[in-house]
Amino acid sequence: MAWFEKVLKDPVHDEILVDDPWIWRLVNTAAVQRLRRIRQLGTSYLTFHGAEHSRFTHSLGAYETMRRVLHYLQREYGWPADLRERRLALSAALLHDVGHGPFSHTFERIYPVHHEQWTQRILMEDDELASVLAEIDDTFASELAGVLRKDGRHPYIQQLITSQLDVDRMDYLLRDALHTGVSYGRFELARLIRSLALHEGTVVLKQSGLHTAEQYILARYFMYTQVYLHPVTMGSDLLVAQILRRADELWKSGQSVDMPHELVALFEGQDAVTVREYLAVDESTLQYAFHSWARSSDPVLRDLAQRFLERKLFAPIIRSEPSSEEWAVLRTAARAMGFHPDYYVCGRGSEVSAYVYQGQGIFVLSGGGSVQELSRVSKVVRSLNPDAEYCLVLPKEMLETEGPFQHRVRSVVSGGAPVSG
Length: 421
Ligand code: NI
Fold this sequence. Notes:
Layout: E1 6-10, E2 14-18, H1 21-27, H2 30-33, H3 55-77, H4 83-95, H5 104-110, H6 115-125, H7 127-134, H8 140-148, H9 155-161, H10 167-180, H11 189-194, E3 196-199, E4 202-206, H12 210-228, H13 231-252, H14 261-268, H15 275-279, H16 283-293, H17 299-309, E5 315-319, H18 324-336, H19 341-344, E6 346-352, E7 363-365, E8 371-373, H20 374-377, H21 379-382, E9 387-394, H22 396-400, H23 406-413
Parallel strand pairs: 4-7
Antiparallel strand pairs: 1-2, 3-4, 5-9, 6-9, 7-8
Helix pairs in contact: 3-4, 3-10, 4-8, 4-9, 5-13, 6-7, 6-8, 10-12, 13-17, 18-23
The structure holds nickel (II) ion (NI).
Nickel (II) ion (NI) is lined by residues 58, 62, 96-97, 168, 172.
């Protein structure tokens, strides 16, 4: 290969090095560039104002992390053995999130096709991306798709992309911690990379890296509890979900709703959506739709969209999931106060698990060559039991306005404390 080098400044890794012109061609495809218009953390910027970073920056960061991992593994273990395997690993890291849509996880609750499936389709069907992948050979794109759906054909690459010790998490924990401004997500990336080892088809952790790995698992735990599942973010996610639901219902029932043409295909029907139509939708499309809907003739859609644009979010309340009697009380109160209960009274359960043991744990390689699952060797990891909670959300007015129903709402809500924000 002729000499080639692009150095990109990065807030997490300092410098990202692209020394392969083929990788650079992938970076410059429209499908990858689109990720600049999708925030990495969805609506979290309404909670942490710094969380404006895009999935593009994370994709480059995952690529750079993989590049460093490969550099180390190549030196220590002679893997990857050839350029094709190396390119498979690097492109998998760069492209692993290419199927994400705007406000991904919220979107996926409404449209039942997941971003992983879109990633598969985009790799195979997007003309530009497919032609760059085909430069390697005819089977490269399908092998890459196989890595991303974990078909087991390239075990090391697969684990480095999706396991509990993968370049995706390593990058997003550090990046999300930096941009939200919290320090919980920090850990020593360079040391963690040097703690990796290859052992009989599995990427394992050296015993000497145990404490570095503990720090990484704790970072994940704190990022989940303090950032990803923040109650205010849960409230803004649910608000986006309700806006989309209302727009969808109006559209499907033939009522007037101002729909940007990029969104029409998605609202018309999931099965028929083409890759080109899907890629035309990003956060700018949705934000524009919210602007239009804030002037809708439908009072519910108009109010929900205005709330989002003006950050008049739902009030989140952490408590156990309400009983059917409690839901009935809240719905009656909402209706009496002028709020459509289907759109203004809702909630969501969530589970924090910093580390999953069964089937997919991290394995630690001792000096003697034996392998043990991480929670068996680490008291810290063992102590992190999964934790579940429920987040109920209501318009703030239902909690704050004095009136005959407020007392009843409060009695239900007092199962948990409203969170300020
Ligand atoms: Ni990712």
